[in-house]
Task: structure prediction
Amino acid sequence: MGLNDTRLEIEEMIRNDDLAGLLRRTALIHGHHCVGSAMGVIAGHYAMKTRGVAENTGMEHVIAIVETNSCFSDGVQMVTGCSFGNNSLVYRDYGKTAFSLVERSGRGVRVSTRPDLGDLLKARNPETQELYRRIVNERDATPEEEARMMELNKRHCFSVLEIPAERIFKLEQVEAELPDYSRLLESHICRGCGEKVMETKAVKRPDGYYCIPCSGEGYGQLDWAGIRCGEDAG
Ligand SMILES: [Zn+2]
Ligand SMILES: [Zn+2]
Result:
């Protein structure tokens, strides 16, 4: 054990292949149990085990590159310990249920979902699939239907944990291009609103610095549809 025992419980779960424990932890940030977050847990565990990594101090020595911002990525975040807040999570807007676990050297593994997986999972749980589609696409479900879906989903996703990772995912060795370690940045006070803004985001005008909203410049936004810029965002 190192000096940093913050994630001791998670590390033990990774070493002991306690996927159910990892999924329960994931629900702390994800809010519910679902197949997508379960897949993220399986993928995160698969990659960590393959690389022989369990510890992550959140100091950017281990980086996760996620290719989707769906449920899957919350499982990846909880298991790997890579998050936006600790600058160890890189988001690539590919819309693929896949992620890479990469060490500082750039070497790592990419875990991606096998295309025949949908049939494999659907066959196990047709009622949930149908309910979920209705709830998400039509948004007219009753609270009872939503509760029923949550309950079915919860049972189903724990059973998904029993499927061997190799059946769900393809794993390949990769060499990834990583951003440098983060560095501390200066801030400027916006002349419009008086709030502090990170220097890389401050807009320089002849009379001083402005934040993005005060300057009227376009901004990027990550939401359910992916990264949107400027006019399209919001
Ligand atoms: Zn979910
Ligand atoms: Zn401002």
